[in-house]
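User: Sequence recovery, please. Input:
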């Protein structure tokens, strides 16, 4: 069922979200997150290895203390078991907190709740990110070159579109309402950060 949902998320996302809302296939979501974590681990490992290799070709004296420390951290972290553990755990944590935040917002503002369906929907809304990571790995292994930032931007836009659709289909919302609900935490974070900077500056922090 996991593969079928991935396929539908690519070809018929609305049908996929409807199926998720009705069946709530939690097992499929867990299996998908494990696969996502493994792919994420390979992606981060290759990225840090590439960063380390590229930086090693530059004389350490010209990098400065900050970049030398960063290089040492990247080299150590890319070969650490902590990277594997974090890669497997973080997709679960991110999906859980994202679903919790948006379900709470929906309950407070719209008097609607469907946390499990939203969690599974948001999990599978990351399919474009999974595909982008696989393409990155393919390019890195075969061509020894990163993919174009434009390609990454396309997949990010696709992920955002599916994320909003997951919210819309889970709660049966109009698209505009789903977009507003999607943006609420982002705007709240930006406003909170701006307020923090103002308060910090008022105490002579900068």
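Assistant: Recovered sequence (206 residues):
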């Amino acid at each position: 069922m996991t593969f079928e949902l991935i396929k539908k998320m690519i070809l018929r996302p609305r049908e996929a979200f409807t199926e998720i809302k009705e069946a709530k296939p939690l097992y499929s979501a867990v299996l998908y997150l494990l696969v996502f974590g493994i792919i994420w681990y390979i992606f981060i490992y290759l990225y840090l290895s590439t960063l380390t290799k590229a930086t090693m070709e530059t004389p350490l004296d010209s990098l400065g203390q900050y970049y030398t420390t960063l290089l040492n951290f990247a080299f150590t972290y890319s070969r650490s078991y902590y990277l594997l553990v974090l890669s497997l755990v973080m997709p679960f944590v991110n999906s859980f907190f994202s679903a919790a935040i948006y379900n709470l917002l929906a309950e407070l503002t719209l008097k609607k709740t469907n946390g499990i369906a939203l969690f599974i929907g948001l999990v599978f809304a990351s399919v474009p990110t999974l595909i982008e990571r696989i393409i990155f790995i393919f390019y890195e292994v075969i061509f020894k070159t990163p993919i174009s930032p434009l390609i990454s931007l396309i997949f990010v836009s696709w992920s955002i579109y599916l994320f909003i659709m997951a919210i819309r289909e889970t709660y049966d919302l109009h698209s505009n309402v789903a977009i507003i609900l999607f943006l609420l935490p982002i705007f709240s974070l930006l406003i909170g950060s701006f307020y923090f900077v103002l308060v910090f500056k008022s105490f002579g922090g900068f």
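The chain has a mean pLDDT of 86.
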